[in-house]
Amino acid sequence: MPPNPAKLNPLQLRTLTLLQAIARIPGASSTTPEGDITITQFPHAHGDHFHLGDATVRAADATGLENENVWNALHRKGLIKCEWPNQIALTPEGTGYDTGIADQILHTGGGH
To answer: Which residues have C-beta within 8 Å of that of residue 4, sequence separation ≥ 6?
Structure first.
């Protein structure tokens, strides 16, 4: 695992990883003039998982997407801007942060 300079806990790392993945999905985000990426569409779970582009994610790995404390922690660390529960945007620092766990929670190629 790469260095974790912001000292994110596991839930914060998973949440940031998912926000980064959502930001790469066409139509799920928009870029602000300041360079932030506003998430405009969250995935909807069906059963115990949901899809992010070509990846499948366990719903258990996504609990931070709807957790005010996680949003606040990521905001304090400068990785997102947010107005709970209405708006969330990745800062350039959040977009570029290497969580080192994408391959562990974004499952591709398994078929569904």
So the answer is: 13, 100
Residue 56 in contact with residue 112, Cβ under 8 Å? yes
Cβ neighbours of residue 96 closer than 8 Å, sequence gap 6 or more: none
Question: What one-character DSSP code corresponds to residue 100?
Answer: S
User: For residue range 7-43, what is the model confidence (pLDDT) as tens digits?
Assistant: 999 999 999 999 999 999 999 999 999 999 999 998 8
DSSP conformation class of 46: B
**How far is residue 12's CA from residue 7's CA, in Å, rounded to a whole number?**
9
Q: pTM for the whole thing?
A: 0.94
Tell me the three state secondary structure of residue 6. coil
- State phi, psi for 83 to the nearest 5 degrees: -135, 90
Strands (E), 1-112: 29-31, 37-39, 49-52, 55-58, 80-83, 87-90, 107-108
DSSP state of 55: E
Neighbours of 74 (CB within 10 A): 25
